Structures are given as C-alpha cells and as structure tokens.
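pasting for the record
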Amino acid sequence: MSDKFDVVVIGGGPGGYVTAIRCAQLGLNTACIEKRINKQDEPALGGTCLNVGCIPSKALLDSSWKYHETESSLAEHGIKIKGSDLDLATMLQRKDTIVKNLTGGIAQLFKANKVTWLQGSGQLKAGKQVEFQPLDGGEAQTIEAEHVVLAAGSVPVDIPVAPVDQNLVVDSTGALEFDKVPKRLGVIGAGVIGLELGSVWNRLGSEVVVLEAVDAFLPMVDKQIAKDAHKQLEKQGLDIRLGARVTGSETTKTKVKVTYSDKDGEHTESFDKLIVAVGRRPYTEGLLSQDAGVSLDERNFIYVDSQCRTDVPGVYAIGDLVRGPALAHKAIEEGVMVAEVIMDEHTQVNYDVIPGVIYTHPEVAWVGKTEEEVKESGDAYKTGVVPFAANGRAMAAGETGGMVKFVVDEKTDRVLGMHIVGPQASELIQQGAIAMEFGATAEDLQLMVFGHPSLSETVHEAALAVDYKAIHVAQRRRKK
C-alpha cells in the first residue's frame, strides 16, 4: 500500500464513495477508508444509507406496500386473492440481496476507477496526515495526503429514557431486522425515519403507536401538506400522538413498558418492540486527533464554508458531518463539489434547492420555501394548490389522496417552493427542483405541455392555479 495519496477520503458512504470516484475521474490518486462490516461479516462500502438506511428501508417499504395492497385494495381492481401469506423471512432476504448487490457494485466502481479501498478506520492528525488502522488488526500506518475529505456520516441519537439494546428496544438499524411482526409496536419520534419504519410494520400487521414530543406534525413541512399527510397516515392505522414526551422505559423478557407525559398528564403503554428514532448526530468519535486543527460547533458538527472547506487548508468535510439537511443526495453533491474544488473548478451546491422526501404512502416531498417561511419574511406571495383527486391517472391507479402546492413570488412570479403529498411525490418533486434551479416562473410551467394522462398534470394544474387558471378544479379567488 502507498503511504501517500493526492486525496484520502475517510468514510465510504454516499458522500465519501462519490467523492473518491469523482477525484479519481479527475486524475487524482485517491484512497477511501471505510471500516464497516456487513451482516455477512464482510467489509462493505455504502455507509449507513446503503447498508442499514435508505436502501433497505425502501426495499421493506415497497414490499410491505405490496402486501398491504394484496390484503386490502386489489379486490377493487378485480383481482381477488385467497389465502395470501406473509413470508417475512423472504421479504428480509430480498432486502439483504438488494443491499449486497448495491454495495458490491461500489467496490467494482472503485476498481474501475482505480480508487484504493483501505478497509479500516482513519483519524486525521496534524499536517494532513491520516492514521489508518486496518480491520485485520495489523499495525497502524500513517498516510500523507495533499487533500483529506472527512465523510464519516452520522449515527442514531440515543436517549437515556429508552436505552437501545437491539432486542426489545431498537434503533433504525434494528428495526429492519425483526424476525416476526410485533403485535404492538412503539415508535419514539414522528420524523422521517419513525414514520417510514412505523409504516412498514403497520402494513405488515403491527398496531403502531408513534410518540412525538413536539406538538406540531412534521414542523419542517408546509403546514397544509403536513396536515393532509397526518390525516392520511392516521387513516391507515398509525396512532400518532403529538406532544407526547417519553419520560422512561422498562423492559421485561418480552415487553417494553413506556411512560410518557402530555397535556393530559402521565401515561403508560406496553409494547412488544420499541423503535427509537429521534434523529441522528454527526459521527466524529475517533475521527480527529486533538492537534488536527479542525473546528467543531456547539452541536459537534464540523465547521465548513460554503464549499465545505474546514479551518485547515486542504481538509474538507461533507454530508452529515456538516451543516444542512442530513440527506444522502446532499452529501453526494457536496462530494462532487469538493472533488472539483480540489481541481480549481469553482462549483457550488445550491443549498436552497435540495429536495426532501418521506417515503411513506402517500409520499411527502418538498423543495424550497414553505408558505409559512415566505409569509414570515413579509414578501408578497401567491400559492396554487390542486388535489390528485382531479387527476385521471391518479384515479386510474387508485391513488387520489394528496395534493401539489406551489409557493410563488407575487412580484417576480418566480417559484419559491413546491410541496407534495401524494403518489410518486419523490419523483414529481424534481420537476419543482429543476424549475427553481433554472429560475423558472409559474408562467413558464403554465406554458409547458404535460403528457396526458399523467400524474405530472397535477403539477401543471397547480402552476395554473397560482393565477386562477386551473381547468380541472373549481377555484375561489383569495381575498386581498
């Protein structure tokens, strides 16, 4: 192994592996350090996202939805199935196969791009030196680098009132591995992870209670969209209790007893399993030596500028280690930016146009500013909202719940935000992101031709609705 590289990336998750590949494409001698061991007890790339996060959870979300449809809604399409059975072991095996294929694919991309994969842990020291400790227990080695990119990601937040044992009380990783469907499941946290994992097991037959300390549902989401999502998820059977602050938990051999308080006082609930999903924190343990020179803020995030430079010249940090949303696609684009900045190509991530998605059913997605944010700024604005119930493609698919909403600057007509709850929201939201990236106006979208019949027509109608031009919904003009 070489003891000197142009670039050393610490972390092989979405941000890290993409940084390494892009650096190699630009002609830089690049190494990526990753210490993860997967379920098969083998070294693995892909980080949390591919191994125990985004990908396996989506596999289970899709599988569980197919089961739910089989049990609950195929009959209305004229498809009658008698005696369907849930084979949870096969469902979990399918999830694991998808994960293994994707993570193995990254290893092949490393080979194709001549990225050196160093299997073990890395720590940044003074002078852009990296101490590498191999997984095989061999002697630690010191690696010199012209540039170091810190991409160690994040880990679930622990709370003292519900310590995780990965048996009865689990984090997001353990929630992907239940060997049977819990009869009664508790979830602490009604954020993205809590709602997605709660949805999986609710569809498979669990009675799911979600306890959320905050009084508002999805406070980061446009209120109109969040209200509709809340209604649809509760209709599916999720028991979402807001303003419910967990104060303690107690486990027996087979049960978890949880105490929580709300406006009505103290309460106790008993569950077969409990998922703790209260957020994630940057994973900086062992990442930096005391003399590394890299600054952290009060929340333990690494301080960086707009192009992800730390206080140490030649050292960068990306993804969940730094400010901004903890999203894989944000980390990926930061990694590409850093690689190109290293080569003096002054690219920039547009942090104002990063889509967010919750992969429940219906999906929730957003990009840009909420109506509440624009209203608070004092700027004049207008909105256009159209339900999927008015869309022929949605009717044909039996997916009429939800809506598309635009928030638009009243003076310039520029799109400020787009918000969706409904079918394929994760795909449709990119239309809003593209519009915002190119500075499009509502009129630009109004003048475009959208395919018929398609879910995208609801995007078109919502843009038309901004100026009371929607054809397929009746509109009342807002009072000035």
